[in-house]
Amino acid sequence: MSLRSIIKKSTGQDVYKCHACNDCEIDARDEMDVPLSSLVQMILLNDEEVLQCRTVWSDSVLEASRGACKRGLDLHAVITVLREESKRRDG
After folding, report:
1. Tens-place pLDDT, residues 74-89
2. CA distance 40 to 29
3. Residues 60, 47: Cα–Cα separation, whole Å
4. Alpha helix locations (H) across the chain?
5. Nearest-angstrom CA–CA distance, 51 and 2
């Protein structure tokens, strides 16, 4: 199952809504190795490296992601599912 499908099944969020507008940039750049807009693009490409990136595992990024998307994509829920999926695979 693709990362996009896993997220949609778990949250109802479709990351395909992302238009790569870069409006979701947050003030936690020191803790990110991948900007949020690039994170979504990695999900769309089913790039599983996204499961291990620092951005996904930063609690500051997780909190700052609430409401970050101006188009209504719940990035907090997306990151939470990525964390859960990573743990499930390592489990």
Report:
1. 999 999 999 999 999 9
2. 16
3. 23
4. 3-11, 36-44, 54-57, 59-64, 75-90
5. 12
